[in-house]
Amino acid sequence: MKSQRRVVSTWQLISFMISSMIGVGILSMPRTASETLNEMGWMGPIVGGLIAMLPLLGMVYLSKEYPGLTFIEYSPLILCGEKHVKWGKILCIPWFFIFFSFQFLNAGMVARGFGEVVVTAVLLETPLEAILITLFLIVLFLCMHEVDVLVRVNELLFPIMLIPVFLIPYVSLTSADWNNLLPLHLDSFEALVETGINTFSLYTGYELLMIFFGLAMPGAKIGLATWIGLVFTVVSYALTAVAGIVVFGYEELQNMIWPTLELVKTATRTGWFPERLESAFLAIWVASVFTTLGNMFYSTVYGIRLLLGKSIRFQRILSFVLLIPLLYVTLLPQSIVEFFAYARYLTYYGYISTVLIPVLLAIIHWLRKKTFDETQDSKKGVT
Amino acid sequence: MAKHWCRFAVLLVFVTMLTGCWDRRELEERTSVLAVAVDIVEGREDLYKMTVQIPIPIKIAGSSGQGGGGNSDAVKIMSVTGRTVTDAANNLQLRLNQKLFLGHTRVLAISEEVAKRGIQDIMDGYRREPQIRRLMWPIIVKGEAASLLKIKPQLAQIPVVFLMDLIENGSKMGTIPDQTLGDYFNQTSNKSMEPFLNYVQASESEVRWKGIAVFRGHKMVGAINDIQSWSLLQLRNEQRGGDVIIPLPGEQGGFVTFRPHFVKTKLKLNDSHVLGNQKKSNPQHSATFYCELQGDIVEVTKDLHIPPEEFIKKMQTLIKKEMENRAKKLFTQLQKDYNSDILRIGLALRAHHYRDYWEKHDWKKEFKDFPVEAVYTIKIRRLGMEMQ
Hints:
Helix content of chain B: 25-40%
Shape of chain B: globular
Largest interface: A-B, 31 and 27 residues
Number of helices of chain A: 15
Structural class of chain B: alpha/beta
Order of helices and strands of chain A: HHHHHHHHHHHHHHH
CATH architecture of chain A: Orthogonal Bundle
Order of helices and strands of chain B: HEEEEHEEHHEHHHEEEHEEHEHHHHE
Strand content of chain B: 25-35%
Radius of gyration of chain A: 22 Å
CATH topology of chain A: Hydantoin permease
Oligomer: heterodimer
Strand order of the largest sheet of chain B: 4-3-2-6-7-8-9-10
Number of domains of chain B: 2
Largest sheet of chain B: 8 strands, mixed
CATH superfamily of chain A: Hydantoin permease
Number of strands of chain B: 14
Strand content of chain A: under 5%
Number of domains of chain A: 1
Number of strands of chain A: 0
Structural class of chain A: mainly alpha
Helix content of chain A: over 70%
Distance between the termini of chain A: 39 Å
């Protein structure tokens, strides 16, 4: 039974990871990154990536130790060993709750962020709900299917998503002033750490791999996929930040709500056949946001299904039931300012489930293994 | 069977959603504004007068075979007042049958009087409005801004198109800076530089580029003429500027015209301890533009009767001297008269001398007395179709 579900290839892991991470955050990222770091803002995403490295190390380690198992299955094993799985499951309930609630809330914020962009920039008269419900209906449709469909969708949309990620820095080169990027100096280390901690929210989404590593094909290169995915994401974020800073200067970035979108709007130079690139950009961006939102929501539903050991029918019903509160979560922030504040709180909440617990689990497992090995050794010594 | 029905229902929902025509508005259902002019209402200091130019599609020749006769009919010009620019736009909407659409606006004309009072309040609305392009051109108009929209150029049916072509071709030729709204926003936000905009004058039927309006913050402080603007273009943007016409020394009524083709500018920032004049503890910073102009002689009105080799040398020194004088005049104007760093020296200083200069000085105050000079290198390549 368990070998049947191991369907995800290395390439699918990469595309899944990248499209889970790159979402709506990139649209406001040049501003948030350069808020305190000024012209050194591009360091923010790099530090954020370094923070993400730690839990990823733990996750890769754990899934090598428990091949073919998702975190839902191996967390109890780590905590209480194979003899007391039931106790382990009970102990893990708060951890699962934190994980799933974060995914759920984060999915809501991603959807809201995208809705806000569309409503403020392109479809001014459209109510936010109309955009959200459309998006949710497609996600619901996705949730009607098994995991292999989800990863295939990610694989399919991944190349489309690549276009803007590299096009933005490229087209903005024409209006760049490289002096905006200088001087290279760090005035305060705290500012760097603070920005890193805040921009870390751009990377949330990788923690879903705790489920999908367990679904990887036997022989899939988990480590390789992880590091390629992370490096790619860090590079594309850093490039976007650099593009924003060289085109606008960090002072102007602070005045813009979606700097990356403005970048696309200004980048339309003569000689480019599309005059209004931002509509095309947003159209492509729907795919990117859809994968982020879809992956998060799907993983929540799928994780609960695994936890309870139910079938696809349960997943279908649950996804429909959960979408209704999701809409409420999405509409919770009353204004755009409140939205950014909520998103920031959520980042701090996310640290528990995306950094703290994976690392803790890895350490616990490592300690247990060590003590276990030692007892084995001492036993050997006795005999 | 139930499954089929379910699928059908889902499909139906998607089809209705995916049309995406929530706020659909056909092209003919909007009033596209090509240009906006902002003036002060005479006698009412608290009001803005907004003038817009709206093209009439059916009157534009070739659009529907009817052809347009007089080109003055191709556009409609409407004026309206309001306490803010948006208020004026709303008042204008009350007089229009279709929805006002600013997505195609290419020119924002602002009268000198308004610019001198400061245009931050005008720009705020345009910053927030998503329809407004950052590639739009704000232009400062001498006298009444609305006069720029009322010109009848005859060479183009729509006056704004004429104006756009004027700027676009000018910036292609390197004689007019391509200064967009986005540039203006960036420059006002940036703490190390000041913004500038194109400065034009409009008469009954024509428009003329007059140079550059220099700003300090959001307020216009003055203008520099076309000759100084070309020096600025060479030093700041590496654009070639216009032809240089110099009276020949010693020859009554003789002129030589030099046409630059390629410009290469390097801004060098020095601290004086490199030069060795002062103590290291108190380094005096200075900026030098090294500008290399390559170009041709296109006109010499008097024969000088000297061998070609000597002629080239003589002309190069003559042009060099003239260009450096022009640059010096530009610096004096910017520093002493306007105290506005539109040359981007501050940006370079911040980038390269952050610790030893930028942190210790207030650039907004220091720029006035900052030593700046320009050193030109003139390379005459050709003499046109003549031998001398």
